[in-house]
Write a structure and sequence with these properties.
By secondary structure, this protein is of the alpha/beta class. The chain is built from 14 helices and eleven strands. Helix 3 runs parallel beside helix 11. Bound molecules: (4S)-4,5-diaminopentanoic acid.
Amino acid sequence: MKHEQSNTYFSQAKQVIPGGVNSPVRAFTSVGCNPLFIEKSAGSRIYDADNQSYIDYVGSWGPMILGHCHPKVVEAIQNAASCGASFGAPTYKEIELANLVCEAYPNIEKVRMVSSGTEATMSAIRLARGCTGRDKILKFNGCYHGHADSLLVKAGSGAATFGVPTSPGIPAEVAKYTLTATYNDLVDVKSIVALNKDEIACIILEPIAGNMGCVPPATGFLQGLRDLCTAEGIVLIVDEVMTGFRVAYGGAQERFNVRGDLVCLGKIIGGGLPVGAFGGKKELMDQLSPEGGVYQAGTLSGNPLAMSAGIATLKLLKEEGFYQQIEEKSAFLEAGLALTSDTEAFSRYFRSMLDSGINLAPSQFEAGFMSIAHSQEDLEQTIEAAARALTGL
Ligand code: HOZ
């Protein structure tokens, strides 16, 4: 495929935007070609600036579980926009979305809306520190929780793609409070906790790791963390920004029946608009300002457009059989694909798939995202393209 217009835009973008992109992995650096500039989307497809269409498995990195431009979500956003884009004051829509979230996650009694997943994890950590009076946090190597200073240590995904374990710009004084353990290794976690007795405010994790490839939790790992946190007075933060409303309506916590003290959400709850959220038991959440002393705020928090898109999306996800259908589509695709963990080979595979009109995440460390709008024909076309791409490797 020809990418003349995208290439022209990329040259222009590089003049005024660092690296030509507003989020590093979008630059396609690790797959050896220039990024596509997207003009529009519909259902399972996105259309680039050269008017070529692609079956999309990025789905804006997770939010587009209904596919692009679902008419009910578009309508909700249009209606909200016609009443005003932002007020910096509470609206009824915030209560509506909060109720939907609390119904779906029994351990969320109160939830606060923010504008991104990064804000959600950053705020949850501040709350955990404020509640426990402890400074250290424990995260897992390869788990990504956004780009707040204390979380950008051994962060997988973008950082792994660019070979940067910890970003410059993070003071050693800050990074020293972030302890890191091996994912799925409870023995490692226990020994770190023992070495830092009564000093760890929280353990934060992706309940299914999705930024070092897709790594499910080992049997007993989540429950082991739950028990350890309860015994040691550590706040367990389950980062469901990617998995929430994705792997089940109630996220990974519903699937594995293990509950965090605090939960971070994002992506799907904004229906494609910028949203994050963190919530948990009242006793913890009520320590947030203005009720408590832990400060957290945001001009666009609870934005009415974002709330409307989120409400419309969650209502559609509640429809009978939704998750079964998504599972079936994903299983069909998975069975038809062979996977590779060779970065060079992945980069050739990625380019060949793109040539065949299939848009994958431009890094082998990232997850792919299915939507309900992907048709059987889309899936078969993807499997055929993959077979061709793999033969050529
Ligand atoms: N946080 C995403 C990677 N896991 C990238 C988001 C984006 O570039 O839009």
